């Protein structure tokens, strides 16, 4: 990230009460446009979710404003924020959109601001998923799982995150599955999925803090339980250990052309 001409990418989210999210749209768009950032941000009453790219100084200014600036008034004080690099700008334009949910599940009982599963740091993840009584569950879409996943993970076989609750209703049982460990790309889907399972009576629900991207950033490849590449919803397509670009741009773009939408 020391090259001033490089592209810095920030992926961020937080579940937080934003009843004024409609009024926040234009100030946030103007702020990002002024920094010449590109990418997409979702705003909803339940929080914020986005990935933006630009010059390193501009991304740093964005991160400071979100967490400490007047725009959000300290409400994003627990922002999940990850940085990576791109060889070229991975987005074509800037979009700030209003949504009912920042990640769509369609379950009003799943409210991560009220209850959420136990966060597990990347450094402790291997020990958790190695335990024989832990059900390891990938909450991502089937085409993402096909690119890469953790050893032994269950693939729910869903085309969009909104189908996760249907999978859980049929395949998961609180009496049988006493300990569940979930993961997704950046952590946002797991937060909502864990809130959903807790509301359904599951006792022990864990999720990987910062998602696969944090794991690939922090855990050395020699110690990694990850196999394959991690799909990301921009023109880099997939990242590997150390958050290095994988060179899968063409195949990934074909997958997006088939209509697979952004879940996070």
UniProtKB/TrEMBL annotation:
It comes from Bradyrhizobium shewense. Its EC number is 1.14.-.-. InterPro entries: Rhodanese-like_dom, Rhodanese-like_dom_sf, TrhO, TRHO_N. Catalyzes oxygen-dependent 5-hydroxyuridine (ho5U) modification at position 34 in tRNAs. This is tRNA uridine(34) hydroxylase. It catalyses: uridine(34) in tRNA + AH2 + O2 = 5-hydroxyuridine(34) in tRNA + A + H2O. One of its GO terms (molecular function) is oxidoreductase activity, acting on paired donors, with incorporation or reduction of molecular oxygen. One of its GO terms (biological process) is tRNA modification. Transmembrane segments: none annotated. Pfam families: Rhodanese, UPF0176_N. Keywords: Oxidoreductase, tRNA processing. Residues 130-224 form the Rhodanese domain. The gene is trhO. It is an enzyme of class 1 (oxidoreductase). Belongs to the TrhO family.
